[in-house]
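We both want to read discrete structure tokens more fluently, so let's practise on a single case. Once you have written the record down, we can walk along the chain together.
***
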Amino acid sequence: MANSIGPVRTLTAVELLDRLISFDTTSRNSNLPLIDFIRGHLEASGVPCRLSYDATGTKANIHAVIGPPSAGGLALSGHVDTVPVDGQAWTGDPFTLRRRDGQLYGRGTTDMKGFVACMLAAVPDLAARRFARPIHLLITYDEETGCGGAQRLISDWHDSAMKPGLCVVGEPTGMRPVIAHKGKVSIRVTARGLAGHSCDPRRGVNAVHAASEAISWVAAEARRVAAEGPFDAAFDPPYTTWHVGVMHGGTALNIIAEQAGFVMEMRTIPGQDPAQGLERLQSHVATAIEPAMRAVDPAAGFSFEILARLPALALDAEHRLARIVGEVTGFNAPGTVSFGTEAGFYQQAGVDAIVCGPGDIALAHQPDEWISEDQLDRCGVFIRRLADRLCV
């Protein structure tokens, strides 16, 4: 999409956020119109960029470099996909930025087009300066559905030879530096039963009953871990959490349910392997639920599909990046969060990362999501000062 709003170089973060919000980049949609707009903004300041696409070709990442076209330096990373607005009670159009009492309303304002707008607003200033080390701008797709964009971007570094040295992921932290977050694994669990008339349940295998037994075990395991740990006091809650968010099954009341399932997640404290939790669930299913199912129908049973894995983040509090981000923001005591980000993938790829961005995570994914103009102003100052400290 061609840029149609006046001179790009004069756009403020609020004006850019207005444009970014106008694109419905819910994860199920293509993000290419938005990517075209961002590419035009970068090219207007003479900043080259490289695109990498998903398997369908309908979504793309941007990797732009300001300063020396090389590896190393500092990366600023933000995703542009958003969660759906379906079924939420918005008081206005989610894709039209509304401004009221210093608050900016719209889907993605906090999570996390606000940070991306601040990145883009800083481009003309940064592009006009001389940097000894590069500033990488990373704009990704599909963070909300498993960080597929960040993983594709990382694989592209092998071809581009443009791997950053350090990274700031601008998820909403109120501009406080975050050096650690939990990991996450999401799993689809499916129970296969045997259909029949409900007048004689003995002749069938009720998949809804089987799935419910597994869910009961997950709930009990969640309570056990909350009581027994292991614990990490840096997090709230200070333990690995288990959660079932979606369940389905059956076709009619008088039919023994042939199919049922649920989607669950574990959010693990650093050092905890989610594979061990999944193995405990599978072991319980295999020993306590499936034998009775297969006594009626040998084909009955469970299957498990891992939908997404997000590695935990753990940056040393004494790391140079943590120290400098703390000094620039004025928060010298870094924190932790329980939500996941792309930072864990970057750290896993050998790029030390920290999370620091504008907005409040409690407003993310909510109807009438908003971010304050003050947070955008603080973020703009942060980006420019951080570039001075790490790249000049």
Notes: Residues 1-9 have pLDDT under 50 and may be disordered. The chain has nine helices and 16 strands.
